[in-house]
Amino acid sequence: MKINVYNQEGKEIGNTLLPKEIFDVKINPPLVQQVVVSQMANRRQVLANAKTRGEVRGGGRKPWRQKGTGRARHGSRRSPIWRGGGITFGPRKERVFKKKIDKKVKRSALLMVLSGKVKNNMMVVLEDLKLEKAKTKLMVAVLEKLPVKKQSALLVLPKMDKNLIISSKNIATIETIQAKDLNALDILSFKYLIMPKEAIKLIKETFLK
């Protein structure tokens, strides 16, 4: 498989061969969906937490005596039928949303998603990508010259590069990730995939052991 290679000025300077075992894999949508759903579930944070009658304040004294008032008997203001009382069957922090997924299945889904980006012409390969300073202006200038224009894109880095990471932080449509940490969910969250040639080599070494 051949793909065009661009420089930082947005000019085509040639092409490169992509490994078929990574970028030309038959896509199985149900498998990809299964992996993406599991990854979303594993990233989900448990925020909602309702207090039970044992956790709310008050309720130390019986509201009124058992008999003789003409009112229904009550033992505590913490009862769920009282305003300010505990919540019955409310959301709890103990909920577990995590889903276990096999490593081989995750790897297969990743390769399928990468193949999909190439087949739909949504992957941009650069000869190299370097910035002299960590400035958002410099990063925006590079992106405007590439085919992605103002569309959302995931920038795949072969290694940690502070200048590129800091320069991309303030651009809402751009996110950076290291090649060794690639996953199906992050790739599908963006329209385009941008990566230097060096990142392709690292992907091959990491996911084709």
Summarize the topology.
Elements: E1 2-6, E2 12-17, H1 20-23, H2 29-43, H3 103-119, E3 123-126, H4 136-145, E4 153-157, H5 162-169, E5 174-178, H6 184-188, E6 192-196, H7 197-207
Parallel strand pairs: 1-3, 3-6, 4-5, 4-6
Antiparallel strand pairs: 1-2
Which overall shape is indicated by the principal axes computed on the Cα atoms? elongated
Number of strands: 6
Q: Describe the oligomeric state of these chains in a short phrase.
A: single chain
Mean pLDDT: 93
Our Rg estimate from Cα atoms comes to: 27 Å
Return the domain count: 2
Concise summary:
By secondary structure, the protein is of the alpha/beta class. The chain has seven helices and six strands; from the N terminus they run E-E-H-H-H-E-H-E-H-E-H-E-H. A hairpin with a 5-residue loop joins strand 1 (2-6) and strand 2 (12-17).
